[in-house]
Amino acid sequence: MPFATQIHPVAGTLADSTADLLVLPVLGGDDGPTEVDGVADGGLTQVLPAALRDLFTHYSLTGKAGELAQFPVARDRGLVRLALLGVGSGSPDDLRKAGAALSRSARGSETVALAWPGTGEAAAVAFAEGVLLASYTFTLKTGETPRAKRPAATVEVVGAADLADALARGGELASATALARDLINTPSLTKDPEWMAQRAREVAAESGLDVRVWDEDELAEAGFGAILAVGQGSARPPRLVQLDYTPENPTAHVVLVGKGITFDTGGLSLKPNDNMKLMKTDMSGSAIVLAVLSALRAVGAGVRVTGLLPLAENAFSGDATRVGDVLTTYSGRTVEVLNTDAEGRLVLADALGYAVAELGPDVIVDVATLTGAAKVALGTGIGALYSTDDTVAAEIERAGTDSAEPLWRMPLTEDYVETTRSRVADLANIGTRKEFGPAGATDAALFLREFVGDVPWAHLDIAGPGRSMKEDGLLSKGGTAFSTRTLLRWVGRL
Q1: Could you read off the pLDDT of 78-123 as tens digits, one per residue?
Q2: What pTM does this model have?
Q3: Closest of 263, 432, 272 to residue 338, by C-alpha
Q4: CA angle 127, 133, 136 (to 5 degrees)
Q5: How far is 207 from 294, CA to CA, in rounded Å?
Q6: How far apart are alpha carbons 413 and 426 in whole angstroms?
Q7: How far apart are CA 487 and CA 332, in angstroms?
Q8: How far, in Å, are 106, 250, 261, 344, 483 from residue 368 at the CA level?
Q9: What's the rounded Cα separation, in Å, for the pair 396 and 390?
Q10: Of 304, 345, 375, 467, which one is the catalytic site residue?
Q11: pLDDT at site 40
Q12: Closest by alpha carbon to 404, among 386, 382, 384, 385?
């Protein structure tokens, strides 16, 4: 578990706990805040400064998920804090929000004890996700973190002894997300394609996965012309990683493809400095796919899953791909490069073409911080979903809703297909027709669709929610690893 915080289900009541922060859940509804049946004051009647209803009024509580009020109470061993935590309706989404709020307010505490509000397993999974992801930190600062900023070491979930498996499953989902965030947040001084490949080898060894890595010579021999073209301007050469998870008697074969641009200058189509500051996170898709593969055995996935990580650094130099160059992809399709900053779709095209030609998948899903247009359309809270299959799209949308990683299905508008055509090659890597307007996210999706053949396919463009500029709820500043838990839930249900 990569977190400083550990979650433990325990029996008894809050009155039995020696925690330095005691937490009572408060339900919210149209009639205002209410006590949880069977929990009420947690056996702490003697130390409460007033009746619960009076405390609700005093602190103007509504019971909204994540709402929190705390105050000191005297116990035999001295003063401790007691918090009233809004858990909304007790739904999984509300418990996830409540867990995140609790985790942030508990920084500086050693042990926190929450009286479980009595909701089911899905809520326990979500609560664990909220607590752990809100406790996530990434820092390269020297020196010790001040105590007031340290996550609580232990969160006891009192009265939830029968939910140990659900809490552990939430921990697995959160751990996978934390792995992806660590990879995303690592500076590109360290993180080049070979470094990512080495992390994949380590994950494979730890998780019982098969792994294969193509170096630049092997990529050239095999015909991965797009990955090579994107990476040829850098002194740090590209890689392609394949990871395979194969359970007993798999029911289907899923291929996950993650964009892995370890730093994106834009190439000769150079980005402005303000945009380039965020580009260590442009390999988020590959980090997410690697993290999903790392957790499949732990969550008991029953399908075969192959992960493909096309990795390259998009740099500018005398060797960099030029605007107007035509490259040949793995599938044999030729692509005219009209903007070297539209490189993510190029590395994905090679990986998608390889998956269709060599792996025989039943479904393909790719994930990428691909287009600023998706962010313009949907903001930073929602990912764009494109798909050629209604069933796959609906399943992934549902998994996103259940993970608090919302996705909005976007249209693969057939009238726009012409914008993917080049005058001198089969395809162009940006839209070539202006009459359709700036439909950049759809242009990119239609381009990728050219490489999946008849295989059911979904494309997640997470350029908006893939990065956070502040700490908020489950998110920390930096890479969010948005869609990691969505994909794990989706694969786990197949």
Answers
A1: 899 999 999 999 999 999 999 999 999 999 999 999 999 988 999 9
A2: 0.97
A3: 432
A4: 145
A5: 6
A6: 19
A7: 30
A8: 34, 27, 10, 8, 10
A9: 10
A10: 345
A11: 75
A12: 382
C-alpha–C-alpha distance, residues 312 and 285, integer Å: 13
**What are the strands of the beta sheet with 427-428, ordered from one edge?**
326-328, 334-336, 427-428
Closest by alpha carbon to 311, among 253, 207, 234? 234
Question: What tokens does 241 get?
Answer: 């990683």
In the predicted model, what is the mean pLDDT of residues 442-466?
A: 98
181 is catalytic: no
Residue 459 pLDDT > 90, yes or no? yes
Answer whether residue 350 shows pLDDT above 70: yes
Q: Is the confidence at residue 278, as pLDDT, over 80? A: yes
Query: Does the structure show a pLDDT above 70 at 1?
Result: no
**Rg over CA atoms, the chain:** 24
Flag whether pLDDT at 367 surpasses 90: yes
**Do 133 and 474 contact (CB within 8 A), yes or no?**
yes
438 pLDDT tier (thresholds 50, 70, 90)? confident
| Catalytic-labelled residue, pool 81, 271, 333, 409 | 271
Q: Is 191 a catalytic residue?
A: no
3-state secondary structure the chain: CCCCCEEEEECCCHHHCCCCEEEEEEECCCCCCEECCCCCCCCCCCCCCCCHHHHHHHCCCCCCCCCEEEEEEEECCEEEEEEEEECCCCCHHHHHHHHHHHHHHCCCCCEEEEECCCCCHHHHHHHHHHHHHHCCCCCCCCCCCCHHHCCCCEEEEECCHHHHHHHHHHHHHHHHHHHHHHHHHCCCCCCCHHHHHHHHHHHHHHHCCEEEEECHHHHHHHCCHHHHHHHCCCCCCCEEEEEEECCCCCCCEEEEEECEEEEECCCCCCCCHHHHCCHHHCCHHHHHHHHHHHHCCCCCCCCEEEEEEEEEEECCCCCCCCCCCEEECCCCCEEECCCCCCCHHHHHHHHHHHHHHHHCCCEEEEEECCCHHHHHHHCCCCEEEEECCHHHHHHHHHHHHHCCCCEEECCCCHHHHHHHCCCCCCEECCCCCHHHCCCHHHHHHHHHHCCCCCCCEEEEECCCCCEECCCECCECCEECCCCHHHHHHHHHHC
| pLDDT value of position 144 | 84
Q: Calculate the alpha carbon distances from 41 to 6, 30, 49, 80, 127 in Å.
A: 25, 22, 12, 15, 21
By DSSP bridging, strand 334-336 and strand 427-428 are parallel
Alpha carbon distance 461, 382 (integer Å): 10
Task: Give dist(CA 409, CA 414) in Å, integer.
Answer: 15
Average pLDDT, the chain: 96
